[in-house]
Structures
1.
Amino acid sequence: MNFNVGTKIQGALLTHPEKTIPVFEKFFKAALTESTLMLQAETVRRTPVSSGFLRRSVGSEVRGIGLNMMGVVGTPLQYALPVEQGAAPHFPPVGPIALWVSKHNFSGLMWANQITGVESTLQQLAYLVARKISIIGLKPTWMFRDALEAAASRIKKNLQTAAQNVVGELGL
């Protein structure tokens, strides 16, 4: 999502860039840093936890210099996208699901088959979860989308304040 903040500084940036760009960069870099950290915190709060890898992998940074700056919040983990957006029915690998089952203490739920009296194993429980995913898929979590919706007004306010600070410092 992009936020555009119109200000009086646009003309000054064109006529006196050597004076205005450093002031612009100072205030907008600070606003983008604060905004991306806020968005990162909102995203982490909404991120589901199993092992904690996904939650710990969410990071933020401000990229660029001068007038070409942007704040980025994201994760390098490949499985973040299906967690965010959900996934169509597919048969996932049982190994990671077995780890998830063991961490969520479903192993305590191992039951005896009422007909044979044989207990289920961790692998069998993981297989059942994988089979369920192959039938219904995964529901989306929308941790990034919902975090952005929750923080959007504060981010916009930060950027508007940065623009006002630039105008104030330049005396425009």
2.
Amino acid sequence: MTLHDIRSHYVDAARRALAADAPGLSGAESVTRLFQAPYRYWETWLRAKIDRQGGLRVLDYGCGQGAHSVYAATLGAKVVGVDVVTEGLTVASLRAVAAGLAGRIHFVVADCERLSLADATFDVVFSSGMLFCLDPHRAFGEMARALRPAGTAFVVETLGENPLLGAWRRIRAAVRPSAASSFPHRFRLSELSHARDFFGRVEIRYFGLAAAAAALMHGARDSQRVAAIADRIDTLLCRVPGLRRWSMKVVIILSEPLNGFRPGEADQSLVQRR
């Protein structure tokens, strides 16, 4: 599957949403129940940050159809959503209008590896499921550049460390090559080295180990009961170092941005000192 195929997948999804004339749910509710936990964690984190600091400027980096942009705006944040798929941004704009939040969200067609946004503009950068189709070095560099000195990037990614999930994805790709689960690249923990080029602090949280197993069950993805059980099991399993790297999802919280750097121009002396 090429990047063109991946883009086509998101274009088709946006066109289906437009044809249905329904902008859809916002925030974690827009995600399959079984994999909502990392997004609920994001929402709790953002709500607490806004409660402490007041209104924030949030960059939704690769915003897609704008579900998470709208959620951030409902909490009082001023949001800029960027994405390369114009059809998705059309859906995002409709979603913002339907929520009465069009004045708080600005959507921009942009290449996430080469943003035209000014340096040190945002308090928070949020990204979900974007790194698989980007150069991670450029992506983390752009996140750091966009953040203010005290800003934080919050990244949710599908993890590619579990060999059983890898085998399942390969089988699914053969059966349904257009499905999102067939996308070739998943985030690997080794790619965090790129984040450390641009951020002084990197924190990781793991989600979805039991949920990954439950995902193979017919109908489990949208079962509230199965999701609740999987979440409780995951609170234990995802604390075990030898097991947690096999999780389905990972949350990466990046702070202390090294804003003066540009993608491809990491300060080698600083990297060596680490």
